[in-house]
Amino acid sequence: MKRQWLAGGAFLLLVLATGACDWLDDPSPEFVRVMIESDDDALMLITSTQFVQTTNEFGETGVQVFDSDTTIASFPFDQSWNIKDEQRFLLMGFAPDSSSVMVRMRILLDGDLDYDKTVIVLVDDPVRYIYLFNQQILQDFELL
User: Residue 27 gets which letter from DSSP?
Assistant: First the structure.
């Protein structure tokens, strides 16, 4: 009887130890992948991993960018960024001229779909996406 109890206890410890390994894994994503499709010609993209989110006294969300890249993206667009160190990613997409651009944008965090929308992008109404690990962020923000 004691032997069965020890075997059962050892099995239980093995199961717990195997499951507990996931507790030690870092849940933060390492890569963000942006895929954009459109029948239009191009979209101007501003991307950054070096920024802070701010909130003013009226409760309005803003973003202060310290370093960014600007790209004229042709379609289909598919690019990945390493965000392991910064744990943040910002993307703003503008129509490159006074016209409008209809795009379908999908954003994946370590392969998991986080954003999938079809939107009409204007010069003064860009498509926005912001990710900060473990923080709730509104997608409607002002660039400071």
Answer: -
